[in-house]
Design brief:
rod-shaped
C-alpha cells in the first residue's frame, strides 16, 4: 500500500508530462484548424474555377 501512496505523491517528472500534454493539445488544435481551412480553400477554389470557366462548346 505504501508504494501506491509514494507513487501518487511523487512529483518527479511531472513538468515534462505537462509539457507533452500541452504540446499534444496545441498540435491537435492546429491539425483541426488546418483541416477546416483546407476544406474552405478547396470549396472557394472550386467556386472560383466554376465561375471563371467558359463553355468552349
Amino acid at each position: 500500500m505504501n508504494w501506491i501512496l509514494n507513487f501518487v505523491k511523487d512529483e518527479r517528472g511531472v513538468e515534462p508530462v505537462e509539457f507533452a500534454v500541452a504540446g499534444l493539445t496545441v498540435a491537435g488544435g492546429a491539425a483541426a484548424s488546418l483541416t477546416t481551412i483546407k476544406e474552405d480553400v478547396q470549396t472557394k477554389g472550386a467556386a472560383i474555377i466554376s465561375a471563371v470557366t467558359v463553355d468552349a462548346g
